[in-house]
Design brief:
single chain, 398 residues, alpha/beta, Aspartate Aminotransferase, domain 1, Aspartate Aminotransferase, domain 2, 2 domains, 7-stranded mixed beta sheet, 3-stranded antiparallel beta sheet, 41% helix, binds pyridoxal-5'-phosphate
């Protein structure tokens, strides 16, 4: 770490130095140097935003419409918050006041950051089941909190285990941070599991931050349960959701937070100073997505499901046992039968067969022995990737 010779102090703050380096970045850097790469590495839809959604935002921009080209309310467009309240009510039977309990954010990324900053005092502990999304630990650390990782296991369907969470609770625990449907495992948490976690939160007076960005991407007989719809949950839950995954709108940078009024107000305070408001054209597009995007969601979910079955069957047939993902768009096969670690597997597969996957331990130590393969990639590419992985596995096993 560089020391500034003039003043003899470290140039980068302690807080930022504490953040672990991303386990993924070097793979993405490598990809750009290799031809013909098939990437199963990305965490975003390969679909473009449905054109009727893009056009609805483009038209007012072209007309230099006032709303589309100026700040909105710090909370976000009221009409979008009203549409969101109806949408959440319709899907999950929850009731949120658009004026005081909903905030439009710059994606779930911002929602997560401001939720943690609004709740966490220095030294407060945040319980995070892992493997989990790569931002949870850094955002906790940046908020001054202490991440307390609780492993989840394939034998439990990678569901968070209430007993393990209970054992991790201390007098310093403030938040349980959940992310289901899960990135990277594809696990969906069942109602009874979530009910037991809500009961723990109630007993110990904890908050739950529930990142439900993959809520619409759930397959087969599995159903997404919105945490705040559970009895006693809404008053202690910060529900985070977004448009990136369900409507293929990652680049628009728009999401939302739903929370009790005092917590939402605290989050708003941070939001207004660092962000002001989510981009106005993106908010207009998000409102159209809520109003007329259902057919698009259904079309994309059906396609992800087709790919999901192809990749899971394909990986199993290659001798890489693969837990059946129930949501999101990731398969999380075991690579230990090859005798390689997750990162050896990912690095060699990339160099030798030009297929990018992400080592499972980039998402927490319980992900070791696995890799994450995104199926937000066209089916012919998935099929070609499986052929290449098959060749590689044969070679690796000798
Ligand atoms: N939460 C999870 C679990 C994710 O996988 C991602 C993106 O990959 C995000 C949040 C960030 O989403 P957004 O685009 O809404 O910021």
């Amino acid at each position: 770490m560089t020391v500034d010779p003039m003043v003899g102090r470290l140039r980068v703050s302690q807080r930022v130095r504490e953040i672990p380096a991303s386990g993924i970045r070097k793979y993405f850097d490598l990809v750009n140097t290799i031809p013909d790469v098939i990437s199963l590495g990305v965490g975003e839809p390969d679909f473009s935003t449905p054109t009727h959604i893009s056009s609805a935002a483009a038209a007012p921009l072209q007309d230099a419409d006032y709303v589309a080209t100026h700040y909105t309310s710090n909370y976000g467009l009221l009409s979008l918050r009203q549409a969101l309240a109806s949408h959440l009510g319709r899907l999950y039977g929850v009731s949120y006041d658009p004026a005081a309990e909903l905030l439009i954010t710059v994606g779930v990324s911002e929602g997560l950051d401001i939720a943690l900053r609004a709740l966490v005092d220095p030294g407060d502990e945040v319980i995070i089941p892992e493997p989990s999304y790569v931002s949870y630990i850094p955002c906790t650390v940046l908020a001054g909190g202490v991440p307390v990782m609780v492993p989840t296991f394939e034998r439990d369907g990678f569901e968070p285990q209430p007993e393990a969470i209970a054992a991790a609770i201390t007098p310093r625990t403030k938040v349980i941070l959940l992310g289901y449907p899960n990135n990277p495992t594809g696990a969906v948490a069942r109602r009874e599991t979530l009910e037991r976690i809500v009961a723990l939160a109630t007993e110990h007076d904890l908050f739950i931050i529930s990142d439900e960005i993959y809520d619409r991407l759930v397959y087969g007989r599995h159903r997404h349960v919105c945490v705040s719809s559970l009895p006693g949950a809404q008053e202690r839950t910060i529900l985070l959701g977004g448009f990136s995954k369900a409507y293929a709108m990652t680049g628009w940078r728009v999401g939302y937070a739903a929370a009790p009024p005092d917590i939402l107000e605290a989050m708003m305070k941070v939001h207004q100073y660092i962000i002001m408001c989510a981009p106005s054209p993106a908010q207009i597009a998000a409102e159209v997505a809520l109003q007329t995007g259902e057919d698009d969601v259904a079309r994309m979910v059906a396609e992800y499901d087709r790919r999901r079955r192809a990749i899971v069957d394909g990986l199993n047939a290659l001798g890489l046992p693969c837990f059946e993902p129930q949501g999101a768009f990731y398969a999380f096969p075991e690579v230990s039968p090859t005798g390689l670690s997750s990162s050896e597997f990912a690095e060699r597969l990339l160099r030798e067969e030009h297929v990018l996957v992400v080592p499972g331990d980039a998402f927490g130590p319980a992900g070791a022995g696995h890799v994450r393969c995104s199926y937000a990639t066209a089916l012919p590419k998935i099929e070609e990737a499986l052929t290449r992985i098959g060749r590689f596995v044969k070679r690796a096993r000798g």
